[in-house]
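Dear colleagues,

For the upcoming journal club I promised to circulate an example of a predicted protein-ligand complex. I picked one with iron/sulfur cluster because it came up in last month's discussion. The inputs are reproduced below in full, followed by the predicted structure.
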Amino acid sequence: MPITYDQPLYRPPSEGRNLIVQATLGCSFNHCTFCSMYKCKAYQVRPVDKVCAEIDVLANSFPHAHRVFLADGDALGLPTDHCVMLLEHLTSKFRNLTRVSAYATPKNLLDKTPKELSVLQKKGLKLVYLGIESGANLILKRIIKGASQKTHAKAIERARNADIKVSATVILGLGGREDWRIHIEDTAELINQAPPNYLSTLQLTLEEDAYEPFLESQPEGFSFQDDMGILAEQERFISLLAPSRPIIFRSNHASNCLALAGNLPRDKERLLDEIGAVRSGANTVRPEYLRGL
Ligand code: SF4
């Protein structure tokens, strides 16, 4: 019998071909004002025996799977012994398993000791997806991210020291037209201080039910960036990035007006040229009908 997922179910685009195991439901934090992904769900830790039974079903149907994503919004918030049981069960059922990944908040990472993260890495957790959104404390406070530039940097370093890869996302447009410079400059400062392995930029796109909470969290008169404003942010961001370790950079999420891909710092000039071509009118942005969340 196929398993039934508790909806809505989200996963990073790069996990599109991988198995999903729902270890928790919702998000244990659930306060970010721009995010309505799990507002309809109460956070729950799913019982180990239920999750393991679903892993068995998936293993019968897809015995050769080599990557598994643990959903929902921050499966890394599970106690370490709980995570270990799930990781051990996954390893015993999927002989070709090379990677287990999960969304994580900075708090999830900092609540675990370096030793606990190292145990999880050895048991199979190889990648976490961390929505940093901004490196500017002003913006992080407004969007109620529950983290600061400092805690983001500590969380990235803690994961990387345990040999767990970090895929971080930044949301262009979060500072609006008024505060875009501080948003971008402080975010570049964070990334240069604590480079993740992968970095993606998304373009601020709100679900209908997120408009009100988002605008309530912003100063009066907040104005959304248009595509040219977003490209100015992207250009400034990339121009300021000088990470001490290479970063795989992507802005190919469906929300973006311009898809970019490269390695930083190696491809910096090419990426800036591609942005410059659109800003100068030599190239065009992705049409609205081809964009999404
Ligand atoms: S952005 Fe992430 S941490 Fe914030 S509410 Fe949404 S799922 Fe939770």
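Two points we might discuss: The pocket of iron/sulfur cluster is lined by residues 27, 29-30, 32, 35, 37-38, 73, 105, 131 (CB under 6 Å). The two ends are 31 Å apart (CA to CA).

See you all on Thursday,
B. R.
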